[in-house]
Amino acid sequence: MRSARVLSLFASLAILVGACAGGQPTGGGAASPSTAKAVPGGAVTFALEDDPIDFDPLRSRAFIDRNVHYQIYDSIVRIDSSGKIVPWLAEKWEVAPDGKTITFTLRKDVTYHDGSVFDAESVKWNIERYIKTQGSARSGELASVDTVQVVDASTVKFNLKAPFAPLLANLVDRAGMMVSRKAFETATSPDDFTRKAFKAGTGPFMLTEAVKNDHITLEKNPSWWGKDKDGSALPYLDKITIKPITDSSVRTTNVRTGDAHVANSIAPKDVAGVKTESGLVYQEKPAFGFNSLIPNRKPGFVFNEARYIRAVSMAIDRKEILDKVYFGIGVVGYGTIAPSHFAYDPSFKPFEKPDPEGAKRLVQEVGKGPLQFEVLVAAGDALLLQRAQLIQAQLLKADIKMDIVQLQFAEILKLQNDHTFKGLTDIGWSGRIDPDGNTYDHVYSGRPFNDSAYSNKDVDKFLDEQRATSDQEKRKAALRAAEKIYAVDDPARIWYRFVVAQLLTVAKFKGLEPYPDQIIRFQYGWLQK
Question: Which CATH superfamily is domain 2-279+507-527 in?
Fold first, then answer.
C-alpha cells in the first residue's frame, strides 16, 4: 500500500518517486567509478560561489546556504542522484485514501549534534516553527499542513487541509530539515542562531566555525546514522573547509592548483578545458534551476506596468545569451517548468526569436516615453557582469536603456525580499524536483519568494488546482495554463535559461556525482591516499 499510494497521490514528478523502506544512504560514484575501496579520513576545501547568509533553514532564501544545510541537517526525505525521492529521517510513509493524511515512520537511531534526541516531537516542533513563525521562508511550502500529530516517539502524522501532491518534494529540502530545539532555544536570538547554528543538526557534518566572508568549517559527525553500501560508517571525511570565492574563474583556478578540492559552479568558458585536463574530473547533468530577470511590480515602480516586462522579454535574444555567455551549456528557457519536469512542453517558445521592433511598439503604447531602468547584478564575478552587458546591448536595439548596478549578493536578496529595488534583479534559482516548487512561491500572490510582488487571480487559481489533485495530466494542464499567463500574457518575470548541475573535483577526491538540485553530498566523498 505504501509505495503504490505514495506514487499515486504524491509523485506527480518528472521522475519516479520512491517510498521504499530502509533509508540507508548508498555510496555515490564518479563519472568513471573507481574500484578502489573508500578510505576514511582527510580534509577537503570547497570553493563556493558566495558566503552563506542564513544557517537557519527557516530564514534561508539562497542556494549558497543549502550547500551548508545539506551537510549539517538531515531532512525527512531526500532525493538520490537521479532525482528520485528516497527515505531519509523517515524510513517509510503511508498516505490515507483521501490524500489528506500522511504518516511517517521515523528512524530510531538519530540524535542531534548536541546530544538531544530526534523523534516525533522534534518533527512536530520543527514543522510548526516553519509554519507559524512570522517571516518564515518555509510557510508557503508547508501551507497545506493543518496540524502535526505525534502518534508515538517514532511516528508522526501530517494532517493536511486538502490533498497536496508536492508535499514530499517540499520535505526534501529546507521545509523538511530538522533543527535541534535545544540548540535553537539556547541561542540568544534568532538573529544570533542563523549565523551560529552550532550542534544544531543531525547531519553527517557539524558546523564548528563560521567566519564571515572568509571560511566555514564543518567537522565529521562521528555518530551519524548513515552507512555506505558495504555497511561502513559515513561520512568518510574528517573536515570540510568552505571558502567563498565569487569569481567563477578563480574558483576553477583554485581547484586546478589544489588550493581547493571541489567546486560546483564552473565558468562556462573553462568547461571545455577542465573536461580533458589531467588531474581533474568534471561532471554535469540537467538540473531544474533557471535564470531570470526579476522586476519589481509594486505600485510606484517602473515595472508595475506589465507591458514593460513583456517588452524586455521580447527584446532579449536568449539563444545569444546561451551561446556567448554560457558556451551552449544549459537550455534556453521561457518559464519555470524545466525540461526534466513532467509538465514541460517543448513547443512552448513564446519568445524564440528577439523582436526589438515589437518591444518598441509596446513601450510606445504605454505612452510615457523611452524605457530606462537599472538592473542589480551580484558583484565579484566577471561572468555575471558579461551576461548583464550582453542583455544591455540587446535591449538597446529596442531603444530600451538598462543601467547596470553591482551590489553584494546578500544586499540584492534583501532588496528583493523588501520589494524596494527600483528596476530588475538578475538572480538565479537552483530549482526543485516538482514544478510546483519552481513556480508556486515565485508567482502566487503574497508568497515568500514572490520577489516581483506579482499577483494574478487566474494564476493563483490554476496553481491551487494543480496542488489539489494527484492526477498528473490535470496537474500538467493547470501548470501549463498558469505558465502561459505569468510568462507571456501578464508576465511576472523574464526567464531566459535552464541550468545544469556541475561538479569539478581533483582526481584524488572520489565518490561524488552531481545531483539535479546542484547540491554536493559530501558524506560520500573520500580522498585517495
Answer: Periplasmic binding protein-like II (3.40.190.10)
Interatomic CA distance for residues 49 and 381, integer angstroms: 9
Query: Which residue(s) pair with 262 in the sheet?
Result: 46, 505
Give the residues across from 394 on adjacent strands: none
Give the number of other CB atoms < 10 A from CB of residue 403.
12
pLDDT digits over 335-379, tens only?
Answer: 999 999 999 999 999 999 999 999 999 999 999 999 999 999 999
CA proximity to 139, closest of 63, 195, 69, 59? 59
Q: How far apart are CA 36 and CA 229, in angstroms?
A: 14
Bridge partners for 409 per DSSP: none
49 pLDDT above the threshold of 50: yes
Strand partners, 111: 117
Query: Which residue from 189, 163, 137, 129 is spatially nearest to 447, judged by alpha carbons?
Result: 137
Are both 2-279+507-527 and 287-499 of the same fold?
Answer: no
Distance, in Å, from the CA atom of 314 to the CA atom of 388, rounded to the nearest integer, reads 16
**Residues whose CB is less than 8 angstroms from the CB of residue 482 and which lie 6 or more positions away in sequence, other chains included:** 439, 443, 458, 459, 462, 463, 466
145/5 Cα distance (integer angstroms) = 19
**Contact at 8 Å (CB) between 42 and 511?**
no
Identify whether the C-beta of residue 182 lies closer than 8 Å to the C-beta of residue 74: no
Separation CA 478–CA 12 (nearest Å): 13
Closest CA to 221 of 340, 84, 149, 115: 115
309, 495 Cβ separation under 8 angstroms: no
Domain ranges of the chain: 2-279+507-527, 287-499
Give 273's Cβ-side CA count (13 Å radius).
10
- Return the half-sphere exposure (C-beta side, CA atoms, 13 A cut-off) of residue 458: 11
Q: Closest by alpha carbon to 202, among 300, 69, 322, 29? A: 69
Measured distance CA(204)–CA(219) in Å, rounded: 9
Q: What is the pLDDT of residue 20?
A: 37
At 465-504, the pLDDT tens digits run 999 888 999 999 999 999 999 999 999 999 999 999 999 9
pLDDT, one tens digit per residue, over 117-175 is 999 999 999 999 999 999 999 998 999 999 999 999 999 999 999 989 899 999 999 99
- Regarding the domain with residue range 287-499, which homologous superfamily does it belong to in the CATH classification? Dipeptide-binding Protein; Domain 3 (3.10.105.10)
Is the preceding peptide bond at 57 cis, omega within 30 degrees of 0?
A: no
Please say if the pLDDT value at position 22 is more than 50.
no
Residue with cell 503504490: 4
Distance of alpha carbon 244 from alpha carbon 126, whole angstroms: 29
Coil, helix or strand at residue 528:
coil
Consecutive H or E run containing 148: strand 145-152
